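Design a sequence for this backbone.
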């Protein structure tokens, strides 16, 4: 039986604003034809993503990426991560 590879999509993250005092990182994430804005309030552990269209596809993988990379992210920085799904 041949194993099938899971589809992958690359998500591109651009950080637009960061405030350690307020505990927030803001930016934009693009994956396939979708574009979302996000605000991560890391002191509260809350991730807001808009618009709602496709949000369920990106919210969990984006949250994991932000938690793993938060101290390395800088305003103006461009980053990417893989999503194990075809979007």
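Sequence:
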């Amino acid at each position: 039986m041949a194993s099938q590879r899971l589809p992958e999509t690359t998500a591109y993250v651009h950080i637009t604003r960061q405030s350690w005092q307020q505990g927030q990182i803001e930016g934009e994430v693009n994956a396939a034809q979708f574009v979302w804005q996000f605000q991560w309030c890391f002191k509260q552990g809350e991730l807001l993503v808009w618009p709602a269209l496709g949000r369920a596809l990106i919210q969990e993988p984006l949250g994991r990426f932000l938690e793993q990379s938060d101290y390395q992210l800088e305003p103006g920085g461009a980053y990417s991560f893989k999503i194990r799904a075809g979007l």
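The longest strand covers residues 9-19.
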